Structures are given as structure tokens and as C-alpha cells.
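The instructor's notes for this session suggest beginning with a concrete chain rather than abstract definitions. Hand out the sequence below and ask the class to guess, before any prediction is shown, which regions might be ordered.
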Amino acid sequence: MRVLLAEDHRVLARTIATGLRRQAMAVDLAVSGDEAERMCLLTDYDVLILDRDLPVMTGDEVCRRLRELIDPPRILMLTAADEITDKVYGLTALGADDYLTKPFDFAELVARIRTLSRRTPKSPRAALRHEGITLDRARHEVSVDGRPLELTPKEFAVLHLLMEARGAAVSHGELVRTVWDENLDPRTNAVRVAISRLRRKLGDPGLITADKGQGYRLCD
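After discussion, reveal the predicted structure:
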């Protein structure tokens, strides 16, 4: 899942982003409304967490502009404006998909983001299957021949992407963009390490192959 967090309070933004990355979300940051709009036009985000009180262009205006797109991201407004009239205005007049007031519980934020991502038509099936592997997106669970498998959030996200590809190669760049985010050092071996651990946990080193110049794929 790729998320854009538009929040001008830099300490809060870094704290939220760190927590979401630990939940296997790729998180990019924007500190102004115009930057948030520009990034949404350039990148296909699943969810936009949008502060209403942004500099240069308000979150309200960003929301209005993005709603004119053919396929806008799901928008979760995150704001200190907690009056019922504020919530109704954000959800109806502005067209936000959800509204969460500050201060908030982080677990609730994660739950709301996951709920919004399930509403998008990009993931119509709850479970993916391949060679005895079952990946349940709704429950965030993986099993091999009925045996539960414990994966880290990043390992789950990598396997999810490979299974969605249905045997097609997934490039290193796509794995980085989708599972990690723009802050990942391009020189890191994070992708290779995650693939290596997945192979070991799945119990079949040959199940995930590396095609030179192509990327990684699941084999039969």
C-alpha cells in the first residue's frame, strides 16, 4: 500500500510515517498543499492522509481539486477541527472519504487506512493462491498447505506483490516503490534480504527466482 502523508508539522509527520512504515506501508511526505497535489498527480497513491491546515494551499482546496480526477486516491482528513459541522463539511462538501480528529490513537489511524484501501477496486479479491500458498489480504495472513506462516510486514508486502503478478516478473524498482518508499537508500540490499527470508520461510528456495534484468517472479 502506498500512502501520501500531507502534514506540515514535521515532527508529527515523521512520527506517523515511521509507524506506518512498520505496518508495511510505503509512505511519502508533503509539507504543503501544492506539494501534496503535485505528488498525487505524479504518483498513484492508495490513500492520502490530508491535514486541513496546510500552507500555500489548504487541505480543503487540495481535496476539492483531487476530487476532479478520474481516479483520485482515497482521502483521510486528519485535523484538529473536531466539531460535528467540520466533519460533515469535510465528508460531504469537500468529498473526503474519512475524517479523523487530532489527537488520535495510532491503531485507529492504521485501521482506517486499511479500511479505505479495501474500498478501492484495485484489489477485488480478498485471497491470493499459488502452489499451496494462500495470502489473505483482509486478515493479513499467509499459510502454506494450510500451515500458518509468520511473516514480517515487509515480507508480507513483497509476497503480496509477487502473487498479484501471477508469475510475471516484478522489478527491483517496483518492489522498492511499492513496499518501501522514496526514502529508501537505492544502494541498500533490503529487497534481496526480504526475498532471501521469504524463500527460507516458504520452504522452497526455487519458488522465487531472480531474472537478470527483469526482477523477481514466482515459479510453479
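Then share the key points. Residues 51 and 78 are 5 Å apart (CA to CA). The longest strand covers residues 74-79.
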